[in-house]
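Render this sequence as a predicted structure.
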Amino acid sequence: MQNATQNDHNIELTQAVMHVLDDWKLDGEQILSVMALPDKIKVRHLSLYRNSQAFPETEEVTERLRHVLGIIDALATSYPTNPRMSLFWMTRNSKKFQNRAPIQVIVEDGLEGLITIRKHLDCSYDWFGDTN
């Protein structure tokens, strides 16, 4: 069982990620898919993650959470003075991704899409060949 401080931290991370996923204009079904939330979780439950509950602690959800956080961090590093550029970059089609927007790569390719976008943005992640 986690202590209260760790649980509070997990809730804050979940809320931050949900805020970004909402900014990326993902619908409920896309959020469920991108985060690999368990089948018992429905779109109507997503408001819990925006407000008061941490993501479930499954291996798959934790891995995807780490990748989304890595993407968020890399975008903040790439665009430190204009956070709106992060959204622009995520939604703009690119030849690098077969004329798809990075968010489209994530939605369509799942975990591999998250890894692809993270590798593109975060040279240190790609440099070490980390797959986690």
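Summary. The chain has a mean pLDDT of 91. Residues 4-23 form the longest helix (20 residues).
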